[in-house]
Specification:
heterodimer; A: alpha+beta; Folate-binding fold; four-stranded antiparallel beta sheet; 19% helix; 37% strand; B: Gyrase A, domain 2; Alpha-Beta Plaits; globular; sarcosine oxidase activity (chain A)
């Protein structure tokens, strides 16, 4: 199994244990215009290279993780718990 | 009309036939293990973890942050519930009927499990006493190392048959035997 993700709670695991849930983008506030919500829900940049994604560790600790990786080489730069990374950015 | 409720193990139809004596590599299925799910309230994670470790007759199994399975093969469910209720800041649910516990041991146990899980089970990476949730084939199970060559697998009851058949298949080349244990 080539793609290994090191979960901060469970250790190094194969990617089959996870479910990839898409890009990490800031959620607009509830009073934001429809346009901003449309962008948040549907529009993605799809860059080549370094990318931040939500990964759900479905078969392990069932926590949401933020995986910072290169989507071209699959080099993983860091994995943090989504809650911790949200608290860190506040 | 009198109604008699009989306990029937999920693997009753899988472990049948003549009783054979256990080989060195043996899978022993606990008949009625006591398994509670324990969740710590916010801010109480560390205290609950320590209290679980100190509780008598209970082996805590790590599932995720602030989440454990409390396992006991010796005490009854009322006793375990009593011990767990003394831990403050935790929510506790009896899961005994929904889970199946299998203990696998023997010299080839790591080679057998290597064909089932994608986790490094070398003693340096997964030491005795360590436990975690992981994917076993296509089923999410809790695996714990109870000794150098002994592991315990906790699966959801409805997946137990499939996990059991997988294990026996992978253990066939090592002459893995299986039986129920305990009353």
């Amino acid at each position: 199994m080539a793609s290994l993700i090191t979960c901060p709670h469970c250790g190094t695991r194969p990617k089959e244990e996870f479910s990839v849930r898409g890009a990490v983008i800031a959620r607009p506030s509830a009073s934001e215009k429809d346009e901003a919500w449309h962008r948040y829900v549907y529009v993605r940049d799809n860059p080549k290279g370094r990318y931040q994604e939500y990964w759900h560790h479905a078969a392990g600790c069932r926590r949401w993780l933020v995986v910072n990786r290169d989507n071209l080489t699959h080099e993983v730069f860091g994995v943090t718990d989504a809650q911790a990374s949200r608290e860190g950015s506040r | 009309m009198a109604l008699t409720l009989l306990h029937r193990h999920a693997l009753e139809d899988h472990i049948l036939g003549f009783e054979t004596s256990a080989n060195p590599n043996h899978l022993s299925v606990a008949r009625r293990p006591v398994i509670f799910s324990v969740l710590a309230h916010a801010g109480q994670e560390q205290a609950v973890g320590l209290a679980l470790k100190a509780a008598p007759d209970i082996a805590p199994r790590f599932c995720g942050p602030a989440e454990w399975l409390a396992v006991s093969l010796t005490a009854g469910s009322e006793t375990v519930a009593g011990h767990l209720s003394e831990i403050s800041g935790a929510s506790v649910v009896d899961q005994s009927d929904g889970k199946v516990l299998m203990a696998i041991s023997g010299p080839s146990v790591r080679q057998i499990l290597a064909k089932c899980v994608g986790v490094d089970l070398h003693p340096q990476a997964f030491a005795p006493g360590h436990s975690a949730n992981m994917l076993f084939g296509h089923v999410a199970v809790n695996l714990a190392r109870t000794g150098p060559d002994a592991f315990e697998i906790i699966t959801p009851r409805s997946f137990a048959g499939s996990v059991y058949e997988d294990l026996m298949e992978m253990g066939r080349e090592f002459a893995l035997t299986a039986s129920f244990s305990g009353g």
